[in-house]
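We modelled the chain as a single entity of 223 amino acids. Its sequence is:
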Amino acid sequence: MVIAIDGPAGAGKSTVAKNVAKQLGIFYLDTGAMYRAFTHYVLIKGIPLDDLESMKRLLKTFSLTITSDRVLVEGQDVTVTIRSAEVTSTVSYISSLDFVRKKMVELQREMGENRDITVEGRDIGTVVFPDTPFKFYLDADVIERARRRLNDERSQQNSADLEQIKESIVQRDKYDSTRAISPLRRAHDAAYIDTTNMTVNEVCNVIINRIQEKQTGAQHHGE
């Protein structure tokens, strides 16, 4: 079983996906962390962002390990550092490169083989696992998404203001939804959930109920 959760920045994908995975006792895969890990790797190696050949070479030796709560690159724990402002401002560009996406999609499919997982990102239901019947698209008002991001930043002691974050989210939305490779969009068969005025538990309940309904329906159908 693959539970695909897509949506824009700040819609609550990571928190919801983690909680759903925990409640169902299955593996949680944060695909955003994968792109962030490679972006961080490019930055610490000092590769200029227009040097695509060096990036391609780096991708060949890129060693990534993701557990339910840790991200390791070359054995080094980068769980916290991949959330830095520098990575955040660069990850959209790195993740729009076709050779990077191709490699990450391969890795994501490998991780989803032979086990039940909850996966979140921007192209999970449309590109990575288009055949899964369990697709969800989370969204929220842009001000609410900015507020959530601001709370995250504060908890990490980063200084930012609401207007700055809102502006960066608007830019990110525009970039993600207009890029040529795997743009952010809702799969035609994904359940749309507006999380603006919902708690994390409420969103998780909607998703888990929907999954159980589908599973029950499939069982009846197969009888």
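As a brief sanity check on the tokenised model: The chain has one domain: 2-222. The radius of gyration is 17 Å.
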